[in-house]
Amino acid sequence: MTQPAHLTRRFFLQTSAAGVATTAAGVPAFAATSVNFQLSWLHSVQFGGSYIAAQKGYWTDQGLDVSLSQGGPNAPVEPPVVSGTALVGISAADYAAAAVAEGAPFKIIAVAMQKNPFAIASLTANPVNTPADLVGRRIGMAVANTPVLQALCTLNDVDINDIEIVPTQYDPAPLVSGQVDCLLCWETDLPVAMTVQGVDNTTMLMADHGYALHSQTYIATEEAIANRRADLVALVKGEVMGWNDYVADTDAAAALTVEMFPDAGLDPQSQKLQAARQVPLMFSDLTAEKGFGWFTDDTVAANIETLALLGRDVSADLWDRSILEEVHG
User: Fold this and answer.
1) Do 109 and 96 touch, CB atoms closer than 8 A?
2) Neighbours of 227 (CB within 10 A)
3) Which of 55, 114, 160, 326 is most buried, by the most CB atoms less than 10 A from its CB?
4) pTM to 2 decimals?
5) How far is it, in rounded angstroms, from Cα 53 to Cα 241?
6) Total Cβ atoms within 10 A of residue 164
């Protein structure tokens, strides 16, 4: 998957003081370590757990003063992490793999989205429920995402030539107007927009049909893992606490997001729906047993197979579970 494909999805989503920790008596206890945490896109409830961690002081309790830097079309994640300007960035397995292929010394140290959010959205009156249902249909998508569709087809013995690809902008309008029969999109955005508009829609999550690709992954450099390990552990600990609070009350997370970023143009109803839709992507039996952000050798192996279909030849060395092992004990 190429950068332009990622941007088409992300364009749709556009609709700290340095401190000193104190004791209870207000006496300075220690100087907090300043850390920059690079998000992958503009502020939204997509990063709700991080906002909770900041708002509730979970990072301050860990001795960190964390700045949350939003991403955007002119703010890619990888450069600030490589340069050391950001300690950690939010990326995805395919982006991390592409960067490593270019020489970036990245490791994936935790995984927020256990299931990839790519989905096929259709109208409920004419649903796409399985990959086989794509045969003979018109799918609206960015042409740059063709390798994603091809991977889904390969995994499910579907001939991509039996599907008509219609280049579209990242918008639900072509589906609603009948120009296409389905859309390749994220589970958490175009379907949410249609639901808010009162359009009955159905989504087929590609992860349920073999498309195993970690998304919203936490990346750090090998140098940071070796020399700033304590800061990484502290950052991930605060992040885990924030996301555990998030899953306990997604409505509160959505409300906090809108409150924290009043100038971001965030729609409260859309944020609330998105917050709820993220839960089954981010929390699973695995995270219930091992903790938020966890991954296993088996999930890594599945990612490697999917990445190979996307033209990325990587090894299990891309993933490093040692920070999570310290965080979760």
Assistant:
1) no
2) 11
3) 114
4) 0.90
5) 7
6) 13
- Which two structure tokens, joined as six digits, stand for 192? 């949410």
Which residue's entry shows tokens 């107007």?
A: 177
Residues whose CB is less than 8 angstroms from the CB of residue 252 and which lie 6 or more positions away in sequence, other chains included = none
Who's near 323: CB < 8 A, 6+ residues apart?
A: 109, 110, 220, 225, 229, 232, 233, 236
Which residue in this structure is represented by tokens 């009162």? 198
329: helix, strand or coil: coil
Handedness of CA 282, 288, 290, 291 (dihedral sign): positive
Nearest residue to 205 via CA among 268, 292, 114: 114
Residue 270: φ, ψ to 5°: -65, -40
Give bridge partners of residue 198 from the DSSP assignment: none
In one-letter notation, the amino acid at residue 138 is R
Query: CA angle, 45 as apex, 11 and 141 as ends, to 5°?
Result: 30
Distance from C-alpha of 185 to C-alpha of 192, rounded to nearest angstrom: 11
Residues 144-185: tens digit of each pLDDT: 999 999 999 999 999 999 999 999 999 999 999 999 999 999
Neighbouring residues of 151: CB distance < 8 A, sequence distance ≥ 6: 211, 306, 309, 310
The 8-class DSSP code of residue 111 comes to E
From residue 174, alpha-carbon distances to 27, 37, 318 in Å are: 60, 36, 38
Enumerate the H helices of 138-228 as residue ranges.
146-155, 173-176, 190-196, 222-227
Below-50 pLDDT ranges, the chain: 1-28
Neighbouring residues of 26: CB distance < 8 A, sequence distance ≥ 6: none
Quote the CA–CA distance of 12 and 7 in Å, as a whole number.
9
What stretches of the chain adopt beta strand conformation (E)?
20-22, 28-31, 33-38, 64-69, 88-92, 106-113, 118-123, 138-141, 164-167, 182-186, 201-205, 215-221
Residue 220 dihedral angles phi and psi, to the nearest 5°: -145, 160
